[in-house]
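Hi there. Long-time user, first ticket. I'm pasting a complex I've been working with (about 270 residues overall). I'd like to know whether the download I got is complete or cut off, because the file seemed smaller than I expected. Thanks.
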Amino acid sequence: MPGGITRVVLDGRMDIAGAAAVDFKMNLIAGSAKKLLVDLQKVTFLGSMGLSAIVFPARAVHSRGGKVVLFAPNEMVESVLKTSGIGTLIPVCHDLDAAIAELG
Amino acid sequence: MAGPSPSSLPSSPEPRLTLKSQLEDLTLVWPWIEAIAARYSVPADTQFAIQLCLEEALSNIIRHGYRGQPNQSISIACTVECAPAGTGNQDAGELVFTVEDQAPPFDPLAPFTAAPAPATASIQELPPGGQGIRLMRKFSSRLAWQQLANGNRLTLTFAIPPLAIP
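Hi, the file is complete. Here it is re-exported in full:
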């Protein structure tokens, strides 16, 4: 993506099994990314283990002065993000241009 | 009103699922919920909420209640009930999931566990844990806990549309 943005596309159910499947790769990517766009368009379910699979990599990026944006979650997934408080700490964008601008 | 009144609905079977206290057993829960959802025409959003709440409840029991000890028993029963009087939705029903374990007593509704998400300025300050309880409170219609002689009973209720008569 332009501007040094790393786009990670998550797909399917981010339950305990789904989170375990992406945990390692997410942390690996977060270890080097400075601008991380987490694409949630195809995520059909998000539980607290799935939240952890997003939060810990996001912390790693933030701790190096980087930025993270969550892109296009469906309504229920966004509701989980908001209830957990994470949706207010990491920007959630439904427009790709806005997401790219947010990562600046 | 089209169809019989809720009070004349036939009694529902009581599907029950028994799990061992290991996270791998949670893979049995999703197809079970899907089957229940199909039978009672549960909307996709409600099915999402049921899955979310049960995953949180069960993973809490496995990780915190039984402290990771495998091969302890957890049972989940599902019953279908009429919406309680006074809800203004007398044609609707409720799916009631009763989760029982033999772990030490733990009340998820206690004030210290049921607090809203703390206001923090950054993702670094967000404390780990506590999300599961918040999510269960938000996504279920009602949540109740009862201490048993030898364990816990957590009851999670979800509103569903008017019941379809088989």
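A couple of notes from our side: Chain B is about 25% helix and 25% strand. Strands of chain B lie at 16-20, 73-82, 93-101, 142-148, 151-160.
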